[in-house]
Design a protein that fits this description.
Layout: H1 2-38, H2 41-46, H3 59-65, H4 68-100, H5 107-119, H6 124-133, H7 151-163, H8 166-174, H9 179-190, H10 192-207, H11 211-216, H12 225-234, H13 253-287
Amino acid sequence: MRTSNLSNRLMDTIVIVILTLLTLLCLMPIVNVVAMSFASLNEIVSGNFILWPKQLDWKAYHYIFNTGVFFSSLRNTVWITVVGTIVNLAVTSLLAYVCSRQRFSGRRMLLFMVLFSMLFSGGMIPTYLVVKATGLMNTLWALVIPTAVSAFNLLVMREFFESIHESIIESATIDGCNDLGIFFKIVLPLSIPSLATFTLFYAVSNWNQYFSAILYLNKSSLWPLQILLRQVVLIGQSDIYSQLSAGEALPMPVSTQMATVVLASAPIVVLYPFLQRYFVKGLSLGAVKG
């Protein structure tokens, strides 16, 4: 028994050490990006610092904040994320609720259409022509409406709605509650873990809008953060950000690039811990029928 306990403790220690090393390996690139954004010109050129610069240099962030390009892209990305996530959740939850009700006669056809769109898509060029024909080109709605529903998320949310016991729905119906009342007063309050999970999914997807923005947005004033980040990395800071006042030294291009990466990633990283407790619970509840 004593030998067994010693063996278990040794195995636990080995597992903890291995997981700690793996965690540090995963964190190293993130720490390096943040460190490079704060590194001074001398430290970048000489490469004196290994993990963290000896002296923090805020010049790259000061440079970015003193231009209107970053805040314009940030405003566009926030708009796309907030409005897009609201539209995604509204349309997905309503369709999922309709498909979860056995008494709805058209649910099989609707589910078939959802599955068909999940397996077969129209392709990039037909989608572009549809967006252009509907007048959505060079508008932020072009990044919201074509992706209003995710077929996978709809199916998972439908499974969650089906796990709600039918007797609850029947009791509300006997009390005189209509379908909209049941949906808003009973189903949605019981679905908070699932909704929080899909809020995170949709928010991350909308925040990272990139390829659709390249296709549908030709005006630089409508660029989201991901397009701005691409331009900063590929073209360079001098062609993207406006110049500072005369006589003020410009930061290193790599510092500006890393600072842009940090600022573009920080909001969604900050949002995740608030939804983390719903994440696993929401997925497990949506995948298991009650």
